[in-house]
């Protein structure tokens, strides 16, 4: 998937660049506006996993 606009990770606030080799996840989180994007398996850590650990 290629983005037409810059998508920012909801956890680390870094851009998610299409084609940089890292996965991402996108969710509609109940009670929050819009969709949220997270890096998945990035070199500095997994933003989605970190977000889930904090929310518990």
Mean pLDDT value: 80
Rg to the nearest angstrom?
A: 11 Å
**Tally of extended strands?**
4
What is the H-and-E element order?
A: EEEEH
**Main sheet properties:** 2 strands, antiparallel
Per DSSP, what share of the residues sits in E-state strands of 2 or more residues?
Answer: 25-35%
User: What is the rounded distance between the termini?
Assistant: 30 Å
Per DSSP, the total helix count is 1
Anisotropy-based shape: globular
Structural class: alpha+beta
Strand order of the largest sheet: 1-2
Percent range for helical residues?
Answer: 10-25%
Q: Please mark out the parts with pLDDT under 50 across 5 or more consecutive residues, or reply none.
A: none
Task: Walk me through the structure.
This protein is α+β, with helices and mostly antiparallel strands and 56 residues long. 16% of the residues lie in helices and 29% in strands. The longest helix has 9 residues, at 47-55. The chain is globular and about 30 Å long.
Keyphrases for this structure?
single chain, 56 residues, alpha+beta, two-stranded antiparallel ribbon, two-stranded antiparallel sheet, 16% helix
Short description:
With 56 residues, the chain is an alpha+beta fold. It contains one helix and four strands; from the N terminus they run ββββα.
Q: What topology does this entry show?
A:
Blueprint: E1 7-8, E2 15-16, E3 23-28, E4 35-40, H1 47-55
Antiparallel strand pairs: 1-2, 3-4
């Amino acid at each position: 998937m290629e983005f037409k606009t810059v998508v920012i990770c909801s956890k680390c606030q870094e851009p998610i660049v299409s084609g940089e080799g890292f996965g991402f996840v996108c969710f509609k989180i109940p009670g929050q506006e819009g969709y949220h994007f997270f890096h998945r398996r990035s070199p500095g850590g997994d933003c989605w996993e970190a977000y889930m650990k904090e929310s518990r």
